[in-house]
Amino acid sequence: MPISTKRGDKGFTGLLGGGRVPKYHLKPETFGTLDELNSFLGMARATSKDQRVRKVLFHIQNHLFIIGSELALSGGSRNLLKGHTTRKEVDWLSRLSVDFEALLKPEPGFIIYGETQVSSILDVARAVSRRVERLVAKMKSKKILHNLKILEYLNRLSDVLYLLARYEEKKAGVKPKHPSYPA
Known about the structure:
Layout: E1 12-14, E2 20-22, H1 26-47, H2 51-72, H3 87-104, H4 117-141, H5 149-171
Antiparallel strand pairs: 1-2
């Protein structure tokens, strides 16, 4: 199959299982933003020197492909999916969050991002994951989200990405900086 099908030239895109919607429709907006997130995670994975971080990011990227196909699904054709997001994936992220939080013992409060290149990329990925989460919540409100575990997964994901960024900073010997407010 060629990269360019030219089927989107008139501003419409195809959904998994058939059907076409305008490119500005909530579904392509959401799975397009998910693709953006996956790209940032790929950049973080390529930049990180830590094998554990790289492995975690690789697993998350695989999960995001499954989520993307679920979001692109049209109608009731769930048999087209190669997998779906379950409690298992949500629990995996929850365990990661608990493990990294115990290891890092982060101080409460806001921090200023940008201490290392890889932590900065992870912070951008976290912000994009929050945007995806808001779009998926909108899909839920419009009753076009068929798997509510996706929303749970994305909520846990932003926590994990935040903690991975702080982990990368700690490994680099850098302490997070907190904002200073004018007196």
